[in-house]
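Model: You mentioned two targets. I'll fold them one after the other.
Researcher: Yes, keep them separate.
Model: Target one:
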Amino acid sequence: MKILVINGPNINFLGIREKSVYGTQDYDYLLDLIGKKGEEKKIAIEVFQSNHEGAIIDRIQDAYSDGTEGIVINPGAFTHYSYAIRDALASIPFPKVEIHISDITQREEFRKISVTAPVCNKQIYGHGLPGYLEAIDFILDFLAFSKESG
């Protein structure tokens, strides 16, 4: 089993940018957290990060045929306006979870709008970095249920 975690713009600056919003743990900490989850669940988890919209779209499209079975995505600021990422996600037939470290419903007005969430199976926000682990668990449960009922 393979899950793809995609991080959009500025996520690589965890621990550097807006520590009061995103915390003090850095991006390597997040990678380690996700890696340990993969080991615990005995699954492959690939993490991809880009500050470029086209690279994220290319990676989503590649996931269609590379053995990926679920996507966790933190689109960063692209959440609020990238219909191109939304359309790429919509074309993928397996489970997808949108994740945000902060509580986007309690921030600036523009952050409350997600154009990508409607094409995902779930949206998780405000749970900090552990939200990524919740998203991975959701995908695993979704896939297990699908196999049982399918």
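Model: Target two:
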Amino acid sequence: MLVGLLAALLFLQQSQVDVALDPGHSTADVGASGGGLHEYQLTLDLAERVKARLQAAHLTVRMTREDDRPLTPLANPGATDDIAAEQAARIAAGGPARIFISLHFNGGPTSLHGTETYFNPARADDTGDTDQVLATALQHNVIDALQSEVGYASLDRGVKSDLTAGKPYGHFFSLQGPEPSALVENLFLSNPTEAALLHDGATLDALADGCTQGVLEYFATRD
């Protein structure tokens, strides 16, 4: 309860920005790993690259975290209540924003590969005209940037409801905030080919460019 009240107070105290960027995971909940890389580190790196590009495009940005620590004690990262509290704190840290984007890297069997983006169709009545549009813009621009900038034809795994993955909990709690939201799973760290690509800064630059173009495309449809 205290975490919720503090999160609400933090949210109300901040001014609105164009984009809230959420680098998924932390040292308390490291996420996927592969090829010597860890999701919580890569998401922060990627978010910083996206932030710089968005600011260069004259958009205001707030990141939900700027170091590797969680925002809550998160003593048990496998407990639904603990994860929900952490994600509520992420939404609050992002503050009032026109959109909220959570950045992730995927994990699973080594055979899985590609890029997918999630939205929450139950977040608000107009999600089909907002959240899904945002997710679609992010998805196709990330796919295009990987192809054009690093020559990688990422499998397009599509834009999906957040419940499609069978996770009505965990980081999908980040799609329950007050603004249009999307969660991008940028490649699979568990896939050796994609993990190797992610050792190259050019791949992270391509992902950042794709995300930035997705945001700009989305805002162009709103203005």
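Researcher: Noted. Anything on target two?
Model: The chain has a mean pLDDT of 93.
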